Amino acid sequence: MSWQQNPYPPPQGYGAPPPMPQGGYGGYGAPPGPPPPHAGGYVPPPQAPYGGGYAPPTGPPQHHHHHHPHAHAHPPPPQHGYGAPPAPPTAAGAYYLGVPVPPPPPNMPAPPPPGYNPAHDVERIRKATKGFGTDEGALIATLAPLDAYQIDALRHTFKATVGKDLLTVLEKETSGWFEAALRAKVLGPVLYDCWLIKRACQGAGTHEDLLNEVLLCRTNAEMYILKQAFQATYGKNMEKVVEDELSFKTKRMFVMAMQGVRQEDNVPVDHQMVENDVATLHSAARGAGTDEIAICGILIQRSAPHLAAIAQAYQHRHRRPLSKMIDAEFSGHMKDALRYIVDGAENDGQGVTRDARLLEDSMEGMGTKDERLVYRVGRLHWNKHRFEGQIKPAYAQLFHKKGLKNRVEGETSGDYKRMLSAMIGS
């Protein structure tokens, strides 16, 4: 299967959500096939295409044919099909970034997955960090192969056994970009995203790329998990923290995104609604003044398959990509945020080309943008099916024929290089 093709739905079984049509592009669509072997012999539940390990949306989708296609109509208010509030995480956990994750805070820790003994890895880490000097190779060999359930079990077992926080210990023993790569691994998918949001909103200036990549194109279930975990971890309301960093229409756009009322990805695409949206987008960008909120509302609240259909229809009707309209009508952070969404919908419709390009952007030109490289590899590597089956082949085809690993190893050095290389895999 080439990386451009849409994969078929994941197999049913323990922990698997109902089959969903493919097309998600928030970085979370999973190609099919059995999961790769995991340390300890544990095989997690099948990976979900859209990160939604919650109850499916209630009721049939409500179609919105009532607005005139050329009106400056703002997107309709959330209705069924736009995601009823997701159920809280269950003891079985949920899906996040397309992979099964244990229930994040404030839930009780999940038990270790079958076949994985975290006490063994706790002892390896204790030995690697005891006395004078640190055995960085042992840390890499121990941590890099672990999946989200295993790293969660290790973190909790380390705290219970040693009486110290695992990340705090590693931060004292390591430094620089090696420390940053370890953090991306040790926190797991959910808590690392929480940390990234806090990082994006700290100090002078807002790290806009981070907010775009962590908060946009998320399923309602993922947004629910993220907000709950952020509150439990930092004692602050995530929405307020982000809103305080933004202003005007960009703030309104992120408020919409964080509400978690996006059309669900398993709602069938309504092609009349697609045509209406294309007309609204075109109309909102014409004449005196751009109706930014009308455009943002459509791009923020529509499902991934629906946005992919909009991108195709817009190109067909207006003979130019939707991304060119965004470039012409917007600037600054709002342009970058909307381009992140639209770039995911264009090309393959699943964000594969966009995510491969973002990896390359971290390394091209003068100097490696190490922070971006760490968090992009860190966030993408959890979903092995998508990373191995789509992102890495796309990267090799588009940017570096020797592959992502070869490119990263040429841009990094030392333990930092070895950790990223281990996360990327062969």
Structure description:
By secondary structure, the chain is mainly alpha-helical. Among the domains are: 95-189, Annexin (Annexin V, domain 1); 263-349, Annexin V, domain 1, CATH 1.10.220; 353-424, Annexin V, domain 1. 52% of the residues lie in helices and 1% in strands. The protein has helices at 118-129, 136-143, 148-162, 166-173, 176-186, 188-200, 208-215, 220-234, 238-243, 248-258, 271-284, 292-301, 304-318, 322-329, 332-345, 352-361, 370-380, 384-398, 404-411, 414-424; strands at residues 94-96, 99-101. Strands 1-2 form a two-stranded antiparallel ribbon. Helix 1 (118-129) runs antiparallel to helix 2 (136-143) and helix 4 packs antiparallel against helix 5 (176-186). The model is unreliable at 1-25 and 27-91 (pLDDT under 50). This is Annexin. Keywords: Annexin, Calcium, Calcium/phospholipid-binding, Repeat.
Chain-wise SSE layout:
Elements (H helix, E strand, L loop, with lengths): L93 E3 L2 E3 L16 H12 L6 H8 L4 H15 L3 H8 L2 H11 L1 H13 L7 H8 L4 H15 L3 H6 L4 H11 L12 H14 L7 H10 L2 H15 L3 H8 L2 H14 L6 H10 L8 H11 L3 H15 L5 H8 L2 H11 L2
Antiparallel strand pairs: 1-2
Helix pairs in contact: 1-2, 1-3, 2-20, 4-5, 5-17, 5-20, 6-7, 6-8, 7-15, 10-12, 11-12, 11-13, 14-15, 16-18, 19-20
GO molecular function: calcium ion binding; calcium-dependent phospholipid binding; phosphatidylserine binding
Family: Belongs to the annexin family.
Keywords: Annexin, Calcium, Calcium/phospholipid-binding, Repeat
